[in-house]
Queue: 2 jobs
Job 1
Amino acid sequence: MAFNWNYRALGWFSLPSIWFFQIILVAVTPMVDLFLLASLPFGVWSAVLPFILIFLAMDVLLATLACILEREPILRAWRILPMRLIYRPMLSYCVWKAILRAIKGAWVSWGKLERTASVPVRA
């Protein structure tokens, strides 16, 4: 379906943008953070710091814009900063796990719970 003229919008826009924005960027972002942390001991942080600050400022600005558009309190926009440290690495871990499972060809399922009828019911 991807890059197929029979599926114009889906094949040329939707699927490639999903691959790029929801899979590739999410998988690569924590590596960029690790490179930043690795640059600190070598004194290269002064070259990287402006880009990181601009990136964080853009995160806060976009979150503020989202709060304005949704008529939410603007102070909620600051929640984006802890998300950068906690949520994104967890999301990246899940994406990498899914990528590796897809490469292996392993089936992913929720699993089936065996019913035992062992819960007591009070009348």
Job 2
Amino acid sequence: MTDEPLAPEQRDHQGRLMLHLSPSTDRYFLRRTGEKLELELGAEAKDRFTSPSDVFWDYVVRDQGLSLYWERESGLWLVAGDASDENEAQLRSLAPRLRQHLNPERTA
């Protein structure tokens, strides 16, 4: 891992938008964010994938797919289900609320 700060926004190998939510590598942040999506935003949990270095939790929110992606070295990301404008717009509106939820002492 480098000491350079992560870009708050990037694309994965499939071209999907990825928004960085938290640099914390504590997996508790993944669970906390998943609970927020389910309880407050009505997200429906779908598939989950876990490996020693990363975790994907897939959800559907307002008919749009998204994933929470936790990576051991970079923390927690919100990932669009596809590269559509609608999905990316939803991600951009959710990210500040989720960041505020994870880091209440900081502004989103």
